[in-house]
Amino acid sequence: MKFECHVDINLPLLRVGELFDSEENIPKWQDGFKSFEHLSGEKGKAGAKAKIVYQQGKREIELIETILVYNIPHEFTGQYEHKSMTNTMRNIFTALSENETRWTAEIEYTKLNGFIVKLMAFLFPNMFKKQVQKWLNQFKAFAESEGV
């Protein structure tokens, strides 16, 4: 399953990259975020791994992030592994003008484990896209409220 989302942010490319790249900012735009723990590799470099924990209702969800491409402010690509699925997310940041940046997120689910997850992906693929678009929109609101 593959899909793409985007949002236009009324800030310069460098500022968007700075806000996106800060671990401290994650809880300000990703609801359910609990923690980020660096596990291995050189932080901020391809190959680095981290554990990211989210609270979703009564469930705690752990993801292992592996950085595939780290070229902030232009691109950040990561692979995210969970017991139920694996996906890659390529984040591309493009300056539309001096004060406007487009964030395009390209997501590809490469592995779905278990009948329920496969069924949900088949029956409700927009559910996955809606969550990504929600976070992009929340990042836009957060970033624009922070300003330059």
Give a description of the structure.
The protein has 148 residues and is of the alpha+beta class. 29% of the residues lie in helices and 48% in strands. It has four helices and seven strands, in the order βααββββββαα. The protein has a seven-stranded antiparallel sheet with strand order 1-7-6-5-4-3-2. Helix 3 crosses helix 4. It is globular.
Write the CATH homologous superfamily.
Answer: START domain
What characteristic shape results from the CA principal axes?
A: globular
Q: In CATH terms, what is the architecture?
A: 2-Layer Sandwich
Question: How many domains comprise the coordinates?
Answer: 1
- Give, in order, the helices and strands: EHHEEEEEEHH
* Share of helical residues: 25-40%
Low-confidence stretches: none
